[in-house]
Write a structure and sequence with these properties.
The protein is of the alpha+beta class. It is built from 4 helices and 10 strands. The termini are far apart.
């Protein structure tokens, strides 16, 4: 149990009202929102700090998930949680500081990789990347963004992280490489645009 009254870092600071509910919510959901970076909390216990005491080493990575709502099929973005291994929900920030939760199809849940394509679009797990090979301008290849163990090359094996599972071509798999390519962009995702992968497989 986290002791909110005995934090060595900020126990003598002020402005800690109304944080217990927030901290319990954050720990329960197991996800951080983009707003946390701007909210100025104690990095140890989560208390809100006076502006003069805010440290500079703030988290830079954005933790974000998406999933398709069961009630209307629309995409929703936010934190992700499993409730009792039965309900899979995306939590978003609503009005007046309250959180909204939406039950989603677990098969559609994917995490933001922290990378952007050449058009500035966020790349999520489950996205389909399109690469136009400028050496062979008529060739267009598609690959699915996945997370797991992959081999970037014959000499670079057993990597773990986000990678691209290319279809019909033996390209390197590490996503970080493709995020920096000028002719590589998000063309869709496997849930809304499965035909992109089917077309390439039929051509092989």
């Amino acid at each position: 149990m986290l002791n909110l009254d005995n934090c060595d870092f900020c126990s003598d600071m002020e402005d800690i009202n109304d944080l217990k509910l927030y901290i319990q919510t954050r720990l329960g959901y197991g996800a951080l929102y983009e707003e946390v970076d701007e909210a100025k909390f104690c990095p140890i216990c989560g208390r809100r700090l006076p502006d003069s005491e805010v440290r500079q080493n703030k988290m830079k990575r954005e933790i974000l998930f998406r999933g398709k709502r069961l009630d209307n099929g629309e995409w929703v973005y936010g934190g992700y949680a499993e409730w009792g291994n039965v309900q899979h929900v995306i939590i978003t920030k609503g009005e007046y500081g309250k959180n909204n939760s939406y039950e989603v199809d677990p098969e559609t849940v994917g995490q933001y990789t922290g990378l952007l394509d050449c058009k500035g679009n966020k790349i999520f797990e489950g996205d389909i990347l399109c690469f136009i090979d400028i050496d062979y301008i008529t060739e267009t290849y598609y690959g699915v963004v996945k997370f797991g163990i992959y081999n970037s090359s014959a000499h670079d094996v057993n990597n773990q992280g986000f990678y691209v599972d290319w279809q019909g071509v033996q390209y390197r798999n590490d996503l970080g490489y493709w995020a920096n390519q000028s002719y590589c962009y998000v063309a869709g995702n496997i849930h809304d645009n499965p035909e992109l992968m089917e077309v390439k497989q039929n051509d092989d």
